[in-house]
């Protein structure tokens, strides 16, 4: 079974702190994604990566950056956390091999910024 | 731009009912469509994936159908149980090599005993 893990289930940080969210997948997937999910807004794509060291902006990249130094690991960085970044963060991965674009999600990180 | 709509947004049914969840999309040039389940506070769990060349997929009590020409997919849940209570989301991937699926907002299902 595909497994996508996220470093924390719950995280509480203070405004202005630098926050790291880590995601690891064990299925050798090429593509990895970071989403945030908020009530009434659905899933919104922050960044995605289709290869090591490659990254593309999603719909809402402002205030975030990402790092993908190894194929299995994709990190989301909040450079200076703000209260409006309080949200559920979801990591996903998918393969370029058949069946293409089947997405597998991690358990999520509930981030609260005080 | 692809838009994915799920109606109704919420549904409450008694245990044992057969039910249908709907997903509609505006651009029929899709590669595949995926149905997910999400429990409160958790990540998304993949239920079924339908490739564009397929008409339906089945897993246990779940059956998903796809009609590209009308831009619709349905998720049929047979003999619903309280454990089926969750939010169900569909996501559509565009043909042409895009890696990015477009998600619906989901249908929140409650199955009461």
Model description:
The complex is a heterodimer of chains A (114) and B (113). The radius of gyration of chain A is 13 Å and the shape is globular. Chain A has strands at residues 4-6, 10-13, 19-25, 31-38, 42-49, 56-57, 64-70, 73-78, 87-94, 104-105, 109-113. Chain A is built from no helices and eleven strands. Helix content of chain A is 0%, strand content 53%. With 114 residues, chain A is an all-beta fold. Chain B is 0% helix and 58% strand. Chain B is globular and about 45 Å long. Classes of the chains: A mainly beta (114), B mainly beta (113). At the A-B interface, β5, β9 and β10 of A face β4, β5 and β9 of B.
Descriptors:
heterodimer, A: 114 residues, mainly beta, four-stranded antiparallel sheet, 53% strand, B: 113 residues, six-stranded mixed sheet, five-stranded antiparallel sheet, 11 strands, 0% helix, 58% strand, globular
SSE arrangement:
The complex is a heterodimer of chains A (114) and B (113).
Chain A: E1 4-6, E2 10-13, E3 19-25, E4 31-38, E5 42-49, E6 56-57, E7 64-70, E8 73-78, E9 87-94, E10 104-105, E11 109-113
Parallel strand pairs in A: 2-11
Antiparallel strand pairs in A: 1-3, 3-8, 4-5, 4-9, 5-6, 7-8, 9-10, 9-11
Chain B: E1 4-5, E2 10-14, E3 19-25, E4 30-38, E5 44-51, E6 56-59, E7 62-67, E8 72-77, E9 86-94, E10 101-103, E11 107-112
Parallel strand pairs in B: 2-11
Antiparallel strand pairs in B: 1-3, 3-8, 4-5, 4-9, 6-7, 7-8, 9-10, 9-11
Average pLDDT of chain B = 94
Average residue pLDDT of chain A = 94
User: Could you tell me how far the N terminus lies from the C terminus of chain B, measured between alpha carbons in angstroms?
Assistant: 41 Å
- The helical percent of chain B reads under 10%
Quick structural overview:
Chain A is mainly β and 114 residues long. Helix content of chain A is 0%, strand content 53%. In chain A, a hairpin with a 2-residue loop joins strand 7 (64-70) and strand 8.
């Amino acid at each position: 079974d595909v497994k996508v893990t996220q470093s924390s289930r719950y995280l509480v940080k203070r405004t202005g702190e630098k926050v790291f969210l880590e995601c690891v997948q064990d299925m050798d997937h090429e593509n990895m994604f970071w989403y945030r999910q908020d009530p009434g807004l659905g899933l919104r794509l922050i960044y995605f990566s289709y290869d090591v060291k490659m990254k593309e902006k999603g719909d809402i990249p402002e205030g975030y950056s990402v790092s993908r130094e190894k194929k299995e690991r994709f990190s989301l960085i909040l450079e200076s956390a703000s209260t409006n970044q309080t949200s559920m963060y979801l990591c996903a991965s998918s393969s370029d091999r058949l069946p293409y674009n089947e997405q597998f999600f991690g358990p999520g990180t509930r981030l609260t910024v005080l | 731009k692809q838009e994915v709509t799920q109606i109704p947004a919420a549904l409450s049914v008694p245990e044992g009912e057969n039910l249908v969840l709907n997903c509609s999309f505006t651009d029929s040039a899709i590669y595949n469509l995926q149905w997910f389940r999400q429990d409160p506070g958790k990540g998304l769990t993949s239920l079924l994936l339908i490739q564009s060349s397929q008409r339906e997929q089945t897993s246990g009590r779940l059956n998903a159908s796809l009609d590209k020409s009308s831009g619709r997919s349905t998720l049929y849940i047979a003999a619903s149980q309280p454990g089926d209570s969750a939010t169900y989301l569909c996501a559509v991937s565009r043909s042409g090599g895009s890696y990015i699926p477009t998600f619906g907002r989901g249908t929140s299902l409650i199955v009461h005993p």
